[in-house]
């Protein structure tokens, strides 16, 4: 049991180090000065590099945002408020892949 716990801790720490490295990756977002792009940078870069809106369709983004909000909750990160969630979702849907 202790061995399993040690493996989980090592995996978690390794994942956090990788996440911090990934956040340094610079990406190009559409309308980079828009509120939506600011939300992507603010809320998505805590765990990984901010994603391009093109990685999902408009139909997929609501579920992705829901899952990421739950991950933020699990990690005790600041949660998005409803206004931020709406801005983020509208931005991602606007520039989503077809």
Structural description of this entry:
It is a single chain. Helix 2 packs across helix 4 (82-94). It contains four helices and no strands. It has one domain (2-94). The longest helix is centred in the first third of the chain and has 22 residues, at 2-23. The protein is mainly alpha-helical and 98 residues long. The radius of gyration is 15 Å and the shape is globular. It is 60% helix and 0% strand.
**Nearest-integer average pLDDT:** 84
Q: Estimate nothing, just give the exact number of structural domains.
A: 1
DSSP strand tally = 0
What does the main sheet amount to?
A: none
Q: Which consecutive residue ranges, at least 5 long each, have pLDDT under 50? A: 16-24
Instruction: Work out the strand percent.
Output: under 5%
- Rg from C-alpha positions? 15 Å
Through-space gap between termini? 47 Å
Portion of residues within helices: 55-70%
Shape: globular
The ordered string of helix (H) and strand (E) elements is: HHHH
Number of helices, counting only DSSP H or I runs of 4 residues or more: 4
Indicate the structural class. Answer: mainly alpha
Oligomerization status of the protein chains: single chain
Give a nutshell description of this structure.
The protein is mainly alpha-helical and 98 residues long. It has helices at 2-23, 35-44, 61-74, 82-94. It is 60% helix and 0% strand.
Produce the secondary structure layout.
Blueprint: H1 2-23, H2 35-44, H3 61-74, H4 82-94
Helix pairs in contact: 2-4
Summary keywords:
98 residues
């Amino acid at each position: 049991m202790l061995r399993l716990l040690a493996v989980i801790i090592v995996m978690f720490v390794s994942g956090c180090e990788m996440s911090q490295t990934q956040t340094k990756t610079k990406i190009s977002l559409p309308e980079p000065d828009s509120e939506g792009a600011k939300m992507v940078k603010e809320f998505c870069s805590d765990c990984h590099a901010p994603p391009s809106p093109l990685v999902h369709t408009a139909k997929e983004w609501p579920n992705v945002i829901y899952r990421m909000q739950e991950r933020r909750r699990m990690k005790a990160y600041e949660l998005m408020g409803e206004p931020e969630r709406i801005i983020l979702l509208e931005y991602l849907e606007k520039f989503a892949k077809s």
